[in-house]
Each structure stands twice: as C-alpha cells, then as structure tokens.
Amino acid sequence: MDKRIRVLVAKPGLDGHDRGAKVVARALRDAGFEVVYTGLRQTPEQIAEAAMQEDVNVVAMSILSGAHPHLFPKVVDLVRGKGMKDCLIIGGGVIPEGDIPALKAAGIAEVFTPGTPTGKIVEFIKTNVK
Amino acid sequence: MEDIAQELLNGSRLALSRAITAIENEYDNATAIMKKLYPHTGHAYVLGITGPPGAGKSTLTDKLAKEYRKQGKTVGIVAIDPTSPFSGGAILGDRIRMNSLTLDEGVFIRSMGTRGSLGGLSHKTADAVKAMDAFGMDVIFVETVGVGQSEVDIVKAADTTMVVLIPGMGDDIQAIKAGILEIGDIFAINKADHDGADKLVTELNMMLDLDGVMKEWRPPIIKAVANQNIGVTELVETFKKHHDHIVSSGQLTQRRTERTKNEMLDLLSSNIGSYITRNIVDTGKIDKMVEDIKAHKIDPYTVVSEILQNMLK
C-alpha cells in the first residue's frame, strides 16, 4: 500500500498574495505530502470541486484580505456537500483571534495565524487526518 | 461508499475520484474495482501530451480540452508531476493552468505524483485512465511530467502522442538524438511567437527527412501560442486526422494489442514482485539464503530456481 496524505492548498477570494500559501505548500511537500496547488483567486465552488476531483485528505486555505468569516464556512459547506465527510479543513492568514471560535464552530478544524512554525501545521495534519 | 465501481458506472464523480485513490494507493479493493470497470473500458481516445518542463503542456491541454468541450465531448485529464525522491512529497501544480475547467461538469481533472516511476508517468496512470474511460469520458489527456530525453512511457499509454517543444532549447544535433523526438505523432511548437520558432520547425523537418523510408504518417509540426489560443483548433483537427489514420491503417488495434500485452506483463511482474516480498523478504527467509550463498554452500542461481519452482506449485 502506498498511501500519501494529499492536501489542496487554496487561495479563496481576491487577495493577490500567495507567498504564505507557497511557503506552507513547500513545507508540506517536504513533509512527504502530495500538495495540489491551484493558484490565486479561487471561488469556494472551485475549491470544493477541485478537492473532490483530487480526493484530498486536507483542504488548507489562506486568506489575507479579511474575507475569511464569509469564505471559510462556505468552503466547509460545499466540501461536505460533495460527500467528503472526513476531509480535514484548515485555514490560515491574517485572522484576528476573536474570529477563530466562530470559524471553528463552522467546521474549520484549526486556524494558523502569522508566525506559526510550519512544523506545527505538518504535525496537526499528521495527527488529525483520518 | 459500498460499491465504488458501481457508483462510478452510475455516474458519481466522487466515486470516480475514490476509485483513482484506491488504485493509486493500492488499497485492498483496487483489484476488485478494476475487474468491474474493465469491461466498460476501451471507448475513450487517449491523448498523450509530453515535452520538457515549461513548454506549456498544461496550458495547451487546458485549451485543447476547451476545444473538445465545444464539440460536445467529455474530457478527462490525468496530469502528472514529479514526486520528490527525498521526501516522497510533491507539488502538483498543473491545475493552476486549468482552473476555468474545474466547474465544467463534462471535465474531470486528476493530478498524480510520479511516486518513484521514472518514465514520465506514474505506475498507476494507465489504471486511472481506465477509470475515466469506464466513467464515460470521450477524450482523455495524459499530461506527463516535464521530460528530458528518454522518458517515453507515454507512447505505451496513449493512442496519439503529441510532443510539445519550444524555441531556443538547443541546436539541431538535439533533434537527431534518440528519445522523445522519436515518439511524436504530432509536434507542437508552443510559444511560437518567440524567436527561433521557424528555425525549430526547419530542424524538426530535417530530422523527419532523415527517416528515409516514406512513412504512411509524417508527424505534422504545428506552431501554437497556447495562452493566446493560437494553433489550438489546428491541433484538434490534426488529432482527428491522426486518429482517422491509425483507425484506417489498423495501427490503433495494433497499438492497443501491444498495450494490453505490456499491461498484462506489468501486472504479472508486479504480482510476482509482491509474492517475493511477502513470502521471501518479509518472512526473513532471504537472510538465511544470503548467508548460505555467502558461505558458498549454495549458488544464487539454484536458490532463485527453487523459489520460482515453489511459487509455481
């Protein structure tokens, strides 16, 4: 058996900065994961459909624009709607502490804010992927 | 999901996706899935897209897929990127060029890492193509990793192989070396708005002239600028011509017979390999054998014949 953890790294919304997403993608690759990177300015519908076609274990989203309260929960609903019940959905970016509880309640498994060592994200994924 | 193969045949896209995962990860149910899908395969036209890194294979595949969609055909895409030999991880980035196809219900794109395979594809590419074929895709693109000169597995997996080249990659001696230039049924010169495109066309033509004997099919050389959609319609027409040619000349049947044979032999070797791993390596029997061979109590040739005889009992 040759199982590898597959992760979709996605940038929902309109902000044009993917340095952070690329750093995370690279770290996940170096941890032995297969990382599908879809580039900038993805709609939640595109992210959910790509996650389904690629049968990923994890969807990791990055937002720097402040649109996370709207976009993160929408992606969760759409991914679940595709029948991907076990898919772990995590988020990162410039996200105020106060917003995190609501995101978690909406189904985002964990939120990683600036300064998080990439190793922490790798560990979280390894521990939580079913 | 109870019966992945059945749900796939019923049209579930999630089942198609899960089937490919099972195949790729060699889950226990993979063989059962393939057995059930196999009778439904053989209808799709499989197009191989290969060429060096950065030639524009993904962008061209994206445009070609759109052209087939205009004609009402459904399209599957298997896009392969390299797996790191150090970490086992991979960045699969071909989808970046194909984002506008994501929400088209007549298209299904799957990215795969090479996972140690060196021929430009992954070991499970052929089975992933079969799953898309059984799902009912009319045309299936297989986009290889960016290749150098000798990764030619694609020719065994595809009905028609297109080699994508770009100007400025080397002098004409590169064009007469063996390898990927021998496998093109069609050559696309992408980024043809860059300097050197006409020179490359001439060099390729000279290479083809050196073939000497008149062949029934001389690979056409088509100039394209994928990101401006230039040359795309012409390429699709050329695919059609090649398809008609291999059908009428009997080559398609011949290619598919050859492929079936290769796949059967691969399957056989891989099952023999697992048998050896399971019964000789994992059980530790191999250590005793190695000791005996080292001590010259027995020779390796006898040991191997005995293993094979036991296996065939």
Describe, in plain words, how this protein is organized in 3D.
The complex is a heterodimer of chains A (130) and B (313). Chain A contains 5 helices and 5 strands, in the order βαβαβαβαβα. Chain A is α/β, with parallel strands linked by helices and 130 residues long. Chain A has a single domain (6-124), classed as Rossmann fold, CATH 3.40.50.280. A 5-stranded parallel β-sheet of chain A has the order 2-1-3-4-5, sandwiched between helices. In chain A, strand 4, helix 4 and strand 5 (110-112) form a beta-alpha-beta unit. The longest helix of chain A is centred in the middle third of the chain and has 14 residues, at 68-81. Chain B has 313 residues and is an alpha/beta fold. Chain B folds into 3 domains: 1-39, no CATH class; 41-249, P-loop containing nucleotide triphosphate hydrolases (Rossmann fold); 262-312, no CATH class. Chain B has 12 helices and 8 strands. A 7-stranded parallel β-sheet of chain B has the order 4-2-5-1-6-7-8, with helices on both faces. In chain B, helix 2 packs across helix 3. Chain B is globular. The two termini of chain B are 38 Å apart. At the A-B interface, helix 1, strand 2 and helix 2 of A face helix 2, strand 3 and strand 4 of B. Strand 2 (34-37) of chain A pairs parallel with strand 3 (90-92) of chain B, so a sheet runs across the interface.
Query: How many β-strand runs of chain B?
Result: 8
Number of strands of chain A: 5
Rg from Cα of chain A? 13 Å
Are there runs of chain A of 5+ residues with pLDDT below 50, and where? none
By CATH, the topology of chain A is Rossmann fold
Essential attributes:
heterodimer, A: 130 residues, alpha/beta, Rossmann fold, 5 helices, 5 strands, globular, B: 313 residues, 3 domains, seven-stranded parallel beta sheet
Topology:
The complex is a heterodimer of chains A (130) and B (313).
Chain A lengths: L5 E5 L8 H12 L3 E4 L6 H11 L3 E6 L4 H14 L6 E6 L6 H6 L4 E3 L5 H11 L2
Parallel strand pairs in A: 1-2, 1-3, 3-4, 4-5
Chain B lengths: L3 H6 L3 H12 L5 H8 L7 E6 L6 H14 L4 E7 L8 E3 L14 E7 L11 H11 L3 E5 L10 H4 L2 E6 L7 H4 L9 E4 L7 H13 L11 E3 L8 H17 L2 H31 L3 H10 L5 H13 L1
Parallel strand pairs in B: 1-5, 1-6, 2-4, 2-5, 6-7, 7-8
Helix pairs in contact in B: 2-3, 2-5, 4-9
